[in-house]
Amino acid sequence: MASRVGGAEVEHKDRLLVRRWMETERPPLPPDRLIDGLQVTRFYGGLLIGTVIKAPLLSSGQVTLGVWAVDSGLRLLIAPAALAATSLVVVVVYALAARRGLGNQLGRRLRGPAVALGAFFGHVLLTVASVAAILWASNARSDHSLNGAVIVPILVVATYAAARGFGFVLFAIPALSRHMFRTVELHPALPAVITVVFVWTLVLQDLFFPVADWPVQATLLSAGGALAATGIALIELHRLRSRHNVRLRTVFTAPGDDTGPTGGS
């Protein structure tokens, strides 16, 4: 998103930060429209598994609109942090498995995912802390426990910080669909793996930590959505192997790396 200032086009500040921290500078693979389409479908489909996929239960009268709205809202709120946590776990597991094959390239290849995850987690925490500060200041204002001269600056600063944090997360979502916290710099197949792990954690959440007393069909719908996302990810992995000779079990060597590809990870 860009605006015009004095006739010149100026890109949004948060968009610039997302481009700097969340997008890889040098794509590890040549352009592939099919993979681009699969990535977008897999990513947004995975996010919608916990929300839209349960909508048919509304028409059957098995759940109320309020229960569905609360469950969907909570899923959407926790999805960014849950996706980041899933990415962190997958990156750590892969780095431990591939450390011998990557050798001295491991530290450099981990730099991008570390920067992206750190920036994303930082802005999520900034948003949460700012919203908490707004609620606390508003409550203090209502019960007159703090002077207005103190509360107003807190509200102004916290509102600005919340807007900046939320804006960054909002602009980061499209970048995640393709770069997935820059894990493509570690291995181009990792975004697909991360999505598969993420969608199945949503199914497990339905099974063990449901927001409400959902009928069994809700879990079946979530499992069906997870299977669909897994199928798309498998097609993407097959495309990476057949078109670009990239295999998950082979340490990926990006252009310019000193190490050669080795079998097994």
Q: Would you mind describing this structure in some detail?
A:
With 265 residues, this protein is mainly alpha-helical. The protein has one domain. 69% of the residues lie in helices and 3% in strands. The chain has eight helices and two strands; from the N terminus they run ββαααααααα. It has helices spanning 13-21, 33-48, 56-59, 65-102, 106-142, 148-179, 190-208, 216-244, and strands spanning 2-5, 8-11. The chain has a two-stranded antiparallel sheet. A hairpin with a 2-residue loop joins strand 1 (2-5) and strand 2. Helix 1 packs across helix 6 (148-179) and helix 4 (65-102) packs across helix 7 (190-208). The radius of gyration is 21 Å and the shape is globular. The model is unreliable at 4-10 and 259-265 (pLDDT under 50).
Annotation keywords:
265 residues, mainly alpha, two-stranded antiparallel ribbon, 8 helices, 2 strands, disordered C terminus
Write the layout of secondary structure elements.
Layout: E1 2-5, E2 8-11, H1 13-21, H2 33-48, H3 56-59, H4 65-102, H5 106-142, H6 148-179, H7 190-208, H8 216-244
Antiparallel strand pairs: 1-2
Query: Could you report the average pLDDT, rounded to the nearest whole number?
Result: 82
For the sheet with most strands, the description reads: 2 strands, antiparallel
| Lateral strand order in the biggest sheet | 1-2
Order of helices and strands: EEHHHHHHHH
The total domain count is 1
- The shape, in one word, is globular
Kindly, what is the distance between the CA atoms of the first and last residues, rounded to a whole number of angstroms? Answer: 40 Å
